[in-house]
Design brief:
With 193 residues, the chain is an all-alpha fold. Among the domains are: 1-39, no CATH class; 43-118, Monooxygenase (Up-down Bundle), CATH 1.20.1280. Helices cover 46% and strands 0% of the residues. It has 10 helices and no strands. The chain has helices spanning 6-19, 22-35, 43-46, 49-56, 61-67, 72-78, 81-90, 106-118, 150-153, 186-192. Helix 7 packs parallel to helix 8 (106-118). It starts with 5 loop residues before the first helix and ends with a helix. Residues 150-155 and 178-182 have low confidence and may be disordered.
């Protein structure tokens, strides 16, 4: 057998397997599985169901829905009520009936319905005219004026000196304010201002 070519060995093995009974072929299959590592094995089929559910419990609802598209086994695992019940209870969403043991996916359906009722939309940024900029006023203290330092008392003419971050103009035009909720480029916003 050692001196035969690969093609000769394959013909002999095929001939031997054809002559074997079903139990002998199963034995050969077990021997091959033990010697040849299988590739791309689904971990959820090898792990106990409890551990697979524990791993899936860390996923958010969108990822769970994506996992349901991988395979039939993942679909079964990702739609179990043990996963979706915790996500519903976190928001205080409860079932108004007691499901039978034969009903599956009740908590996922509740989650989907409740999210649809929320009618989530993207946040809208108000226009620049709607923004209200509060006027900053100096904080009045209860400390008598004679105890303040020289820099805090003001000028000799009786006019108060402004703090270094304020200018004398009530509506400064030299500052560019960026609203990070806008999707515009900051340079484009500066040109529009």
């Amino acid at each position: 057998f050692d001196k035969w070519t690969d093609g000769q060995r394959r013909r002999i093995l095929v001939d031997l397997l054809e002559r074997c009974s079903l139990s002998q072929q199963k034995f050969c299959a077990q021997q091959l599985q033990a010697r040849v590592p299988t590739e791309a094995v689904d971990f959820t089929t090898r792990l106990p169901r409890v551990l697979s559910l524990y791993i899936f419990s860390f996923l958010d609802p969108r990822s769970l829905c994506r996992c349901a598209q991988v395979s039939w086994h993942w679909k079964y695992l990702s739609e179990l009520d043990q996963l979706w019940m915790l996500k519903c209870l976190r928001f205080g969403w409860l079932l108004n009936f007691c499901p039978t043991p034969f009903e599956q996916g009740v908590w996922k359906k509740l989650y989907v319905e409740m999210v649809r009722e929320l009618r989530l939309t993207r946040p809208q940024t108000p226009s620049k005219d709607e923004f209200i900029v509060a006027d900053v006023q100096a904080v009045k203290s209860n400390v008598p004026e004679r105890k303040l330092s020289v820099a805090g008392r003001g000028t000799a003419r009786g006019r108060k000196e402004l703090p270094p971050w304020r200018s004398s103009d009530r509506n400064p035009t030299d500052t560019i304010r960026y609203n990070y909720l806008d999707n515009c480029d900051p340079i484009e916003q500066a040109r529009q201002a």
